[in-house]
Amino acid sequence: MAARVLVVGGGVIGLSCAWRLAEAGHEVTLVAPDPGRDSASWVAAGMLAPVTEVQFGEAPLTELLREGAARWKEFATSLERASGHDVGYDESGTLTVALDTSDRAALDQLLAYQHSLGCTAHRRTASECRALVPSLTPTLRGGIEVPGDHHVDNRALLGALVQACRTKGIRFVPLSVEAVAAGGAGGGGPSVDLSDGSRLGSDHLLLAAGTGTPHIGGLGAAGLPEIRPVKGHILRLGPAEGRTGPPLLPRTVRALVHGRSIYLVPRPDGTLVVGATMEERGTDLGVRAGAVHELLCDARAVVPGIDELELLEAGTGLRPATPDNTPVVGWTALAGVAVASGHFRNGMLLAPLTAAAVVDLFGAAPGDE
Amino acid sequence: MAARVLVVGGGVIGLSCAWRLAEAGHEVTLVAPDPGRDSASWVAAGMLAPVTEVQFGEAPLTELLREGAARWKEFATSLERASGHDVGYDESGTLTVALDTSDRAALDQLLAYQHSLGCTAHRRTASECRALVPSLTPTLRGGIEVPGDHHVDNRALLGALVQACRTKGIRFVPLSVEAVAAGGAGGGGPSVDLSDGSRLGSDHLLLAAGTGTPHIGGLGAAGLPEIRPVKGHILRLGPAEGRTGPPLLPRTVRALVHGRSIYLVPRPDGTLVVGATMEERGTDLGVRAGAVHELLCDARAVVPGIDELELLEAGTGLRPATPDNTPVVGWTALAGVAVASGHFRNGMLLAPLTAAAVVDLFGAAPGDE
Fold first, then answer.
1. Residue B365 confidence (pLDDT)
2. Cα A343 from chain centroid?
C-alpha cells in the first residue's frame, strides 16, 4: 500500500529521496521554503569524486563513496528521462596537481593510499598534466589523474529533480518546519508543525534538513548524532562578455597550493566553480573578504588565466557534518521518523545511494504502480 | 528671466548642476535613466583629496582641485539643509602609507612635490601612522598625513542631491538621450531625442553624461574633446553580522603597496570602500577576478583585519577622462548646448565648483526668486 510520506528538506538529498519515493509509488509531500535553492546543494561544485576525496583513516567512508559513484550514471540517465532536463553529468575525469615539492610529496602519499584501497589513480608528470589541461601554470610539480572521478552541474541537477518531482505529482509545501512529532501509540503517524501554524500528518517522515536539523523542535529523543555546520565559500567565475574560444578547463582540476586544497570545476557554459573553504563558524553565511582572497589567490596560482574571468558570484553554504563525517541514514528513535542527513562534502555523490536506501527503508508500494 | 534648462546625466555632476540651477531660479528638467545610481558616482569612494591626488606634471589641475575642495563644506551644509539628509561629509583627514622602502621613497618624492605646490602634508613615521590608525600592518614604512583631504559618503550624497532636486521641483525624465539638436537660427532652443521616441525642447542644455557622451548622436560638430572611459573596480566590505566595536579605520587610508596604489575609505556604518583599479578596456563593466584579487591582496597587506570583513559588493564604474585629464566645462560649438564632463577621478570633489561655473554660464534668474 502506498504510504503518505513527508520529506523535510529541499536539498539534493531531500529531492532525490522524494523523487525516488514517488517513483516507488508513495504519496509524497516535500516541505522546504525554496526547494533546490535554499540548500548547501545550491552552492556545491557537483564533484562526484570518491577517489580524490579519499581521507586517511576514513576507509569505510571511501567504500561508501565508491558505491555511491557506481550508482550515478544510471541515476543521471533516469533523472534526465523523468525530467526532460540535462543534468550536466560529465565523465571527463579529475586531475589533481601539486604546486610545490611539499605538495608533490603529499600527493604521492595520497596516491599510495589510493592504490592501497584498490582505487584507479595515475601519477602524472608536470608536462603530462599540462597536456591534459593546457591552461595550468607552467610551474606545477605534477599530479594525479583519476579518470573515474566525475562531476555534475549541481544547479542543473537540482532543477531536474524539482521538475521530476513535479512530474510525479509530489506536493511542494514552501514553508519551514518548526517541530516534529513522532507517531502515536494508537497508530497515528508522525506530523510536523509548519511556520504558518498549520500541521501536516503522514505515515512516514524523512528528515533531510541538513544543517537545519538542529533548529527543528521535538527531536530531543530522536537519538540523532550532532549535525554541525561546516561553512564553505565558493566562487563562480565566467568568461568575459563576448569572449569565445575553448573553455579554460576541459575537466575538473584540483590542487594542493602550498598545503591548501582548491578545486576548479567547469560547467558546459564556460563557468568555473572554485571552492571551497572549510570553516567551523556556526551558521554565519556571510562572505568573508579573507576567504574570497584565499580562493582567488590559490585558483590563479593553479590557472593564471582565471584573472581574466568575471567574478559572477561569491557564495557560502553550510555542509551538514556528523562527528565521524559519515552520513546518518535510517530510522530515528521517534516512531515513523527517518533521517537522511550529515552528507558533509558528499551530498551530490551519495544522493542516488541514499535515495535507494530510503526507498528500501520505507518499503516500495508496487501495488500502486 | 528663468530659462528652461535640460540637464542630461544623473551622476554627481548632473545632479549638482541641476540642483544649483534650480536654486538660481531656472526651470530644470533632468534626463537620466536612474538618477544617482546609473553613474560612475554610485561606485565612487567619495574622496575629496586634492593634495593626495597630486600628480606630477598636473599642477594646474591640482590648483583646480584645491579650489574645488574649498567649496565643499558650504556645499555639504547647504545640501543637507535643502534635502534634510546627512551626506556623510567627514573631515578626519587622509593618511597615505608606504609598504616597502621603494614605496617610502616614492612617497617622499610625492611629499616634496606637495610641499613645492604649497600643500599642507606631514611626513609620519611608522609608529606615528599606527598611532593614528591602529589597525595598520606593523610592517609599514611610514607615510604622509594630509589633514585637509576629506571624504563624503558618495551614495548618501547622491540620495541627498536627488531629494534636493525633487524639493526644488525639478522634473525627472527616466529615459536615455539618443541625440541632441542645437538651437536654431530662428531662436528655437536646443532639444533632445529620447529613447521613447519623444523630443524635449529647452532654452539651454547641459551635457553631463560622462562616459555616456560618445553614445549620444548629434554631437559631431560640438567640438568636444574625446571622453574615454577609464574603468575602476571597487569593493565594499562591511563588519560581519553581529560584530560591534570601534570601526576598523577612523579615517581614509591610502597606500602604495609594492608600487600599486590602493585606498580604503570608511563609512559611518563601518563599511569600507576599497579601490580602485585604473583600466582602459572600453565600456566593459564586468567584474574581473584578477582585479578583485589585486584589491583584496593589497588591502589586506595594508590592514590585515579586512580578512574578517564581509565582501558586500564588488562593482565597477567608468570614469570619464579627457586627453589631459582635466574636466571640460563650458559652452560647446552647438548653440545653447553646454557641457560639464570629463571629471575623471574627481567628480565628487569638483561637483560644487562645476555647478557654480554652470550657474554662472547660464546666468542666474533672480527675478524668479
1. 59
2. 7
Q: Hey, of B284, B285, B288, B313, which one would you mutate to test binding to chain A, going by the most A CBs within 10 A of its CB? A: B288
Share of chain B above pLDDT 90, in %: 88
Q: Indicate the length of chain A as a whole number.
A: 369
Find the CB nearest B290 among A235, A289, A308. A308
Strands (E), A89-242: 94-98, 122-124, 143-146, 150-151, 171-173, 177-181, 191-194, 199-201, 204-207, 228-238
pLDDT > 80? residue A135: yes
Residue of B nearest to A296 (CA): B293
Confidence (pTM): 0.92
Stretch among A24-28, A70-74, B248-252, B281-285 having the lowest mean pLDDT = B281-285
Query: Which residues of chain A make contact with B316, given a CB cutoff of 8 A?
Result: none
The band of A60, judged by pLDDT with boundaries at 50, 70 and 90, is confident
Which residues of chain A neighbour B314 with C-beta distances below 8 Å?
A: 311, 314
Q: What distance in Å separates the CA atoms of residue B276 and residue B294, rounded to the nearest whole number?
A: 10
CB < 8 Å to B290, chain A: 300, 306-308
SS3 string, B249-307, reads CCCEEEEEECCEEEEEEECCCCCEEEECCCECECECCCCEHHHHHHHHHHHHHHCHHHH
pLDDT at A364: 64
CA nearest B311 in A: which residue? A289
Q: From the centroid of its chain, how far is CA A144?
A: 23
Nearest CA in chain A to B306: A289
Q: Which of A296, A297, A298, A302 to mutate: most B Cβ within 10 Å?
A: A296
Exposed / middle / buried, residue A214 (Cβ in 10 Å: 0-12, 13-18, 19+): middle
Least Cα separation, residue A205 to chain B (angstroms): 35
Determine the average pLDDT of the residues in A163-177.
97
Q: φ and ψ at A297, to 5 degrees?
A: -60, -50
Which three-class secondary structure string do you get for chain B? CCCEEEEECCCHHHHHHHHHHHHCCCEEEEECCCCCCCCHHHHCCCEECCCCCCCCCCHHHHHHHHHHHHCHHHHHHHHHHHHCCCCCCECCCEEEEECCHHHHHHHHHHHHHHHHCCCCCEEECHHHHHHHCCCCCCCCCCEEEECCCEECCHHHHHHHHHHHHHHCCCEEECCCEEEEECCCCCCCCCEEEECCCCEEECCEEEECCHHHHHHCECCCCCCCCCCEEEEEEEEEEECCCCCCCCCCCCCEEEEEECCEEEEEEECCCCCEEEECCCECECECCCCEHHHHHHHHHHHHHHCHHHHHCEEEEEEEEEEEECCCCCCEEEECCCCCEEEEECCCCCHHHHHHHHHHHHHHHHCCCHHHC
Contact B15, B35 (CB under 8 A): yes
B98, pLDDT greater than 80: yes
d(C-alpha B369, C-alpha B364), whole Å: 10
Chain A closest-CA separation from residue B117 CA (Å) = 39
* A306:B314 CB<8 A: no
CB contact under 8 A, A309 and B300: no
Report cis status (omega within 30 of 0) of the bond before A276: yes
The helix/strand/coil state of A119 is coil
* Strand order from edge to edge, sheet including A177-181: A177-181, A191-194, A199-201
Query: What span, in angstroms and rounded, lies between the C-alpha atoms of B306 and B270?
Result: 12
The b/e string for A57-72 (b: 16+ C-beta within 10 A; e otherwise) is eeeebbebbbebbebb
Which H or E run contains A47?
strand A47-48
The ipTM, to two decimals, is 0.88
User: pLDDT-derived band of residue A365, with 50, 70 and 90 as boundaries?
Assistant: low
